[in-house]
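Case study 2.
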Amino acid sequence: MVNKAIFLDRDGVINVDKGYVYRIEDFEFTKGAIKALKYFQSLGYLLIVVTNQSGIGRGYYTLKDFKKLTEWMKNRLKADGIEIKEVYFCPHAPDAGCDCRKPAPGMIEKAARDFDIDLKKSWMIGDKISDIEAAKKAGIINTILIEDEGRRLKVEGGAKYKAKSLFDTISIIVE
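Prediction:
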């Protein structure tokens, strides 16, 4: 295992969570997200998104809709010199019983195999306890829980750190 990664949830971390975001016109990067991603990349981290997308399983939008938005997001970030190595997603509804929906560690474990990632040297940044639980189950020790102004999350969920935004995590991840 030679690589280290920053695993990122999408909605509420990279983009503003407006509830089932699947259209380009509804996608809004969180304040400072692009600067933070560029910073992590400069430290040698691979950037990998792991996101539950139950809106597909619930029929709110299609797999094609999700893939279109994902390609747009990756290309938009690429224009700023940021490479998202991969976007792993769970399209299943919460009651599907799959092994990929967070808090299950399936997406993280697959990424670790695909990119030869040392999970002990990696980080997970998410805005829900399920993000942190998935990371811990996969063997990621370094976790950050994002809390927004509308809701306060407690570190009790097992996260090592908490921050108000993705941008604020740059003061935590310094190596």
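The beta strands are 5-8, 46-52, 84-90, 123-126, 142-146, 161-163.
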